[in-house]
Amino acid sequence: MARNKIALIGSGMIGGTLAHLIGLKELGDVVLFDIADGTPQGKALDIAESSPVDGFDVRLKGANDYSAIEGADVCIVTAGVPRKPGMSRDDLLEINLKVMEQVGAGIAKYAPDAFVICITNPLDAMVWALQKFSGMPKNKVVGMAGVLDSSRFRYFLAEEFKVSVEDVTAFVLGGHGDTMVPLARYSTVAGIPLTDLVDMGWVTKDRLEEIIQRTRDGGAEIVGLLKTGSAYYAPAASAVVMAESYLKDKKRVLPCAAYLSGQYGVNDMYVGVPTVIGAEGIERIIEIELNSAEQKAFDKSVESVAGLCEACRKIAPSLA
Ligand code: APR
C-alpha cells in the first residue's frame, strides 16, 4: 500500500513544526512547499537528517513548484504572513487573501482529492475564501482553530486546578479570536462540568471568567512574548490531530471551523463548531442547544466572521 502523502503549503514556523511532528508520528511522506527559495528544501533536509537518530522513516522533500504536491492526501495551509505585535488577525486579511487565491489554485490543480486544513489567519475568513477559490468540496476544506483554542483552555484549567491536562476536556464554539465562545457547562474535569466545579468551590465565577478571557487572548499572549511572530507548536500539534483523524478514519470529535449551511442558523460561512472528522472529511456537524447567553455570544462571534467575509468580498469580488 502506498504511503500517505502530506503537503505543507507554507514552510515557515508552523510548516516546519508540522513536518517534524508528522515525521515523528510517521503519518506519511511530507512535501514542504513555499515561495521562499531554499526554506522548504532546508527544513526538509534538516528534519530528514534527524530521522536516523529518532528512528522514523518518512520521505521529506522541499519544493517551490506546486507540481510537487501532486496527489497529496492531505494539504495543510500556513502560507501567508503571521501577526506581529500590535497587529490583529484581521490586519492580515488583505495580504493573506491574495495568498489564498494562489494556494487555492495550486491545490485544486494538483491535489483535488485532498483533505485541506487551513491555519492561515484570519482563520474563519481565510478558510472560507480558500474553499471558494479552490472550488473543492466543502466537507474536505476545514479550518484549524477550535482544537487549539480548546487546548489552551484545557491547559489553563489544568494549571488552575492542579490536575493533569489529560483529565480536562474543553468545548469552544465560534470564530477564532476575541469572540470565541468557550462553553463552561460542556467543559469538564473527569466529566464534572465547570459549572458544577464552581458550585463545589473549586473556582469562583470571576476567576473562571479570567481564564476564559486568557483563552480568548491566547494567541496575542504568545505574540507579545515572542515579539517576532506568532504561536507555532500548539497550532501545528492541533492540525496534526485533525490530519490523523482523517487519514486513520478515527472519527474524532473535534471543534473545527466548518462550512455551515443552515446549522446553528448560519449559512455560507465557516464558523467553529463540534465536528466528526473521518475518511470522508467533515462527516458530521454536531448541533447542540445553546442557552440565551451562549447564543448571544455565538451570534456576536458569527457577526464578526461575517464582517471579515464581507471585507474579503470587497477585495475579491469573485468570492461573492
Ligand atoms: N505561497 C506559499 N507560501 C507563502 C506565500 C505564498 N503566496 N506567501 C508567504 N508564504 C510563506 C512564507 O514564505 C513563510 O515561509 O508562508 C510562510 C509563513 O511562515 P511564517 O511567516 O513563519 O508564519 P507561521 O508562524 O508559520 O504562521 C503562518 O498561520 O497561525 C497562522 O497567523 C498565522 O497566518 C499565519 C500562518
Automatic annotation (TrEMBL):
Keywords attached to this entry: NAD, Oxidoreductase, Tricarboxylic acid cycle
Which residues are in the Lactate/malate dehydrogenase N-terminal domain?
A: 5-143
Q: Source organism's superkingdom?
A: Bacteria
**So what does this thing catalyse?**
(S)-malate + NAD(+) = oxaloacetate + NADH + H(+)
Which InterPro entries does this entry report, sorted A to Z? Answer: L-lactate/malate_DH, Lactate/malate_DH_C, Lactate/malate_DH_N, Lactate_DH/Glyco_Ohase_4_C, Malate_DH_type3, NAD(P)-bd_dom_sf
The molecular function terms of the Gene Ontology recorded here are: L-lactate dehydrogenase (NAD+) activity; L-malate dehydrogenase (NAD+) activity
Organism source for this protein? Georhizobium profundi
Q: Does the keyword Repeat apply?
A: no
A Pfam family assignment: Ldh_1_N
* Domain Lactate/malate dehydrogenase C-terminal: start-end pairs: 148-303
What this chain does, per the entry, is described as:
Catalyzes the reversible oxidation of malate to oxaloacetate.
Query: Is the rRNA-binding keyword given for this protein?
Result: no
Q: What is this protein called?
A: Malate dehydrogenase
Q: Give GO terms for biological process.
A: lactate metabolic process; tricarboxylic acid cycle
The EC number(s) given in the record are: 1.1.1.37
User: Which family would the database say this protein is a member of?
Assistant: Belongs to the LDH/MDH superfamily. MDH type 3 family.
Q: Which residues take part in binding substrate?
A: 83, 89, 121, 152
Could you name the active-site residues? 176 (proton acceptor)
Q: Which SUPFAM superfamilies match?
A: LDH C-terminal domain-like, NAD(P)-binding Rossmann-fold domains
